[in-house]
What we know:
One of its GO terms (molecular function) is nucleotidyltransferase activity. The chain is an alpha+beta fold.
Amino acid sequence: MCIDYRELNKVTVKNRYPLPRIDDLFDQLQGSCYYSKIDLRSGYHQLRVRDEDVSKTAFRTRYGNKVYVYCLYARIV
């Protein structure tokens, strides 16, 4: 299934929190004694879409209209 979100992408705020560069992260870790890690492989699909924005994710199938209540992966292209 493919949903065309180009119109939604035009009004979406992009890069509000840009990802840090990997070499900057390694610089910050130098000299640390303790490290931890977290696996966020499925984390993206656990972020809820704001109630007022759910209708913007709507799409139609032969089984009826559907909406996403959790963030879509790679919505912005």
